[in-house]
Amino acid sequence: MPRRRVVSALAVLAVATAGCAQSASWLRTIARNAGSAWPTGTVHEDVFFSSALGVRKHLVVYLPPSYGTDSTRRYPVAYYLHGLFGTETDWVSKGSIDVTADSLFAAGTPEMIVVLPDGDDGWYTTWVNQISYRTCADTLHVEAANRYCVEHERYDDYIAHDVVQHIDQHYRTIADRAHRGIGGLSMGGYGALIISLHYAGVFSAAASHSGVLSTMYVGPHPFAEPVRYASTVDEIRPTAGAFFPRYLNYWGTTLDHWREADIAHATELLLRRRSQLPSLFIDCGRDDGFIDQNRALHAELTRLGVRHEYAEWPGAHTWVYWSTHVGQSIAWMGARIGH
Predict the structure, then answer these.
(1) Residue 268 sits in a domain of what CATH number?
(2) 48 three-state secondary structure
(3) Could you tell me if 189 and 211 are in contact, meaning their C-beta atoms sit under 8 angstroms apart?
């Protein structure tokens, strides 16, 4: 996978703080024209067998600049999940996460390994309605069956166990909860938060950009309190729209399954058990179709007394927004898992 020259640290930090809508191509242009030769990391692709999914999967690994020069050093790891219809390459090819990481590390953010796994369209959860590999392979998809279909749809176990184990076994990681974080966008924003809560012993920090964070929220629109949550699965259908058939595969027709998959509910369960919560970071564009769900989760976490970072910025559900703001979550993540 080709590498790009590093963005100047000032350029990325300006984008992160100003919230200007700049695309990945803008970052690449800055990188090509940069006069300073900051140290750059490297990007690799791995293939490994996932026992949770029952197939071989691909992932992309970004190694920070010092990884190749200091063979004794171990590193924290941030896992970043892609969105629906995405692949493991999206955060690099569309979001320039490697360029952003280079720049932030040069400016003093603690260096991390960044791992970008392939999550298919699995919503990073274990499906109630499992679909066989053969059935999936007989259905038309953008990707080839051997890159998209799985034997078992257990995407949360796959991330929290198989992907983490592969990285810890093959790279110089600091292999403990305190030095692992997870982030993502859209479907991956949901995945990052819910996995960090369901596997709280694995990850100590989680970040969501434009996440689908409160699927049981049914109004008001625009968001206002008091809020309304679905009391039946059928109530979710109008607000879910085209996503509803997917949700039925993931969580079925029983509301209890939807509650188990709900981020606010998972947070409340950890509080009742007096378990350690991960640090949470949430942002969303003000013109994003999921802004009401983000505001609903923000309100629920506030009601529960859970400290979290929350921000709304100009922008919509686009790579312009995500490439602009991923630097903020990387810097936030570095402050929590990088020491």
Answers:
(1) 3.40.50.1820
(2) strand
(3) yes
pTM, entire model: 0.91
| Rounded alpha-carbon distances, angstroms, from residue 23 to 29, 186, 265 | 10, 17, 35
Question: What are the helix and strand counts (H, E) for the chain?
Answer: 15, 10
pLDDT digits (tens, 9 = 90+) for 83-131: 999 999 999 999 999 999 999 999 999 999 999 999 999 999 999 999 9
8 pLDDT higher than 80: no
Tally of structural domains, the chain = 1
Position 189 in a domain: yes
4 in a structural domain: no
Do 163 and 115 touch, CB atoms closer than 8 A?
Answer: yes
Place of tokens 């049914």: 218
Burial 151-175 (b: 16+ CB within 10 A, else e): bbbbbbbbbbbbbbebbeeebebbb
Whether 339 has a pLDDT exceeding 90, the answer reads no
The kind and range of the H/E element at 310 are: strand 309-313
Residue 3 falls inside a structural domain: no
Q: CA 13, 14, 17 angle in degrees (round to 5)?
A: 80
Q: Residue 323, class by beta-carbon neighbours within 10 Å (0-12 exposed, 13-18 middle, 19+ buried)? A: buried
Q: What is the mean pLDDT of the chain?
A: 91
Residues of the domain holding 169: 9-337
Instruction: Please count the other Cβ atoms lying within 10 Å of the Cβ belonging to residue 84.
Output: 17
CB atoms < 10 A from the CB of 307, how many? 9
Residues whose CB falls within 8 Å of the CB of residue 35, separated by 6 or more in sequence, listed in order: none
Q: pLDDT for 234-253, tens place per residue? A: 999 999 999 999 999 999 99
Please say whether the beta carbons of 111 and 171 come within 8 A.
no
